[in-house]
Design goal:
alpha/beta
Length: about 110
C-alpha cells in the first residue's frame, strides 16, 4: 500500500486538506474530524485529491456530509483534482455521481 498522508493548511480565508496515497475507513475518521472542526469555525474548505491514489466509500461519505454541511452554512467546499489524481479516485467520483454534485476543480 502506498504511503498515506493528510495535511491541513489554513490561511486567512480558506483551509486546504491534502490527501495523498490510499485513504479508507481509518483515515476517513481523521478527515471527518478535521472537516467538521473547520466548517464549525466557518472556514471554506478545499480538499486536494491530486495526489490521492485511492479513496473508499467511507471517505466518499465523509466528503458528501461535509459538502452538505458547507452548503447549509453557505461555505465554499471544493474538491481539487489533477492529472496525477489516481484513476480509482476519479472512477468512484464518476460512478457515484459526485463529480456533478460536488464542486470539482481540475
Amino acid at each position: 500500500m502506498p504511503a498515506q498522508s493528510m495535511s491541513v493548511n489554513v490561511d486567512q480565508d480558506r483551509a486546504v486538506i491534502k490527501l495523498a496515497g490510499e485513504h479508507e475507513a481509518y483515515s476517513a475518521d481523521k478527515l471527518a474530524r478535521s472537516l467538521s472542526a473547520l466548517l464549525a469555525e466557518g472556514v471554506p474548505v478545499t480538499v486536494d485529491l491530486r495526489e490521492a491514489s485511492f479513496i473508499d466509500s467511507t471517505v466518499v461519505g465523509v466528503l458528501i456530509g461535509a459538502h452538505r454541511r458547507a452548503n447549509d452554512a453557505a461555505l465554499d467546499f471544493v474538491l481539487l483534482l489533477g492529472s496525477e489524481t489516481g484513476w480509482p479516485v476519479r472512477r468512484i467520483l464518476e460512478v457515484t455521481g459526485l463529480e456533478s454534485e460536488l464542486d470539482v476543480l481540475e
